[in-house]
Amino acid sequence: MKITRITMWQLTLPLKRPYLLSGGRLGVQQLDSTFVRVDTDEGLSGWGESCPWGHNYLPAHGAGVRSAIELLAPGLIGKDPRALDCINLAMDETLPGHLHAKSPLDIACWDILGQSAALPLWKLLGGCEAARIPVNSSIPTGTASEMIAQIDDARIRGCRFHSAKIGGLDVDCETKRVGEILANMAAGEQVTFDVNRAWTPAAAVAVMNSVDARSWFEQPCETMDQCAHVASRVRQPILLDECLHTFQDHLDAWRLSACEGVKIKPGRLGGLTKARRIRDLCMEVGWQMHIEDVGGSALADTAAIHLAAATSPHFRLASWLGNDHLNVDPVPGQGARNLEGMAKPPEVAGLGVVPDANRLGSPYASFERSR
Ligand code: MG
Predict the structure, then answer these.
(1) Cα–Cα distance between 111 and 350 in angstroms, integer?
(2) Is there a contact between 132 and 342 (Cβ–Cβ < 8 Å)?
(3) Which of 82, 116, 167, 235 maximizes the CB count within 10 A of its CB?
(4) Of 220, 292, 213, which is closest to residue 258 (Cα–Cα)?
(5) Please, what's the largest Cα pairwise distance for the chain?
């Protein structure tokens, strides 16, 4: 089987409401997503999506994704999409880094592998069932009462796990906000306080040692060394997110004792192939994981939910769904959705999400073997 054509589309995905994070420092109102379809000479096609969360959250942006795909795609024409390690090696030799651009190409090839094997991705990735994954809410930065109102909304939609985006620099205000959010938690609920890099180490140590919370605190500071400094001075478990990109980053975090858990996001890590390698390392060292994507439609969410479903619940935490936050739905009714606080991957072969190309508009670019 050979790849004959790679086509990409650009989609603007408006959010239901403006989203602030990192204590209000970073904000986004719409996302710039890239959909990719990989076609083969045997009639199978696979889909992938890459959607950075705006352009100021991670070192990635929509136009950059497409620009990198323009360099990557021609080198994949003629290759067997089922040879995932070879596909990834070819991409790494063409263009180091640029993991957000590699992710949709890798995921589309996984989709084809699944279809050719007549197996859903969760099974190919090692899972024994299409496990139902608890959906993590995602509560943007606001006043304590605004955040509590949104947690109440998420509770109505079935969520029992919440990710509250904090990160103010006033230690007293932040301590009060954490306390008020904690006091609103219902029995059986859990909240992660996601700082999105906003705190200085001093602020992190001061707030975390002032609150009663034993909850997870996520990416308190900008760098891994800063987070490791904090981890040695607080009693709460720490998750890392934005400072992790490569396998080596995860090895460094382990050596530094910087965390007890991580976010596994295919978009940030370069696709399912690399995310799975890192997932395996995390299980070996005993870390717990939220497995979800950076953002995007139900297409991107579904790829991550397949990997979440293939991961033992012993290590797996809740997963957020980017599609829950969008005002549009490019893949209506398909893929992983929030059903009363739970999401499950499709049971059909492959990824299980097939966009209608007619709904996507004109392609942004297409690559074929030159004759
Ligand atoms: Mg985070």
Answers:
(1) 4
(2) yes
(3) 167
(4) 220
(5) 67
How many angstroms does the Cα of residue 136 sit away from the middle of ligand 1?
11
How confident is the model at residue 34, as a pLDDT? Answer: 98
* pLDDT score recorded for residue 369: 80
Q: Please state whether the predicted TM-score (pTM) of the whole model is above 0.85.
A: yes
Q: What is the pLDDT of residue 212?
A: 87
153 backbone dihedrals φ, ψ, rounded to 5°: -60, -45
290 C-alpha to center of ligand 1: Å? Answer: 9
- 2 is annotated as an active-site residue: no
* Token pair 């029992």: residue: 160
Pick out the chain residues at pLDDT < 70.
370-371
Active site (annotated) includes residue 265? yes
- Provide the pLDDT for residue 371: 52
271: left (phi over 0), alpha (psi -120 to 50) or beta: left
Among candidate residues 102, 123, 263, 265, the one labeled active-site is 265
What is the whole-number distance in angstroms between the Cα of residue 45 and the centre of ligand 1? 32
- Distance from the CA of 221 to the center of ligand 1, in angstroms? 11
How far is the centre of ligand 1, averaged over its atoms, from the C-alpha of 218 (Å)? 6
Cβ-contact 278, 268 below 8 angstroms: no
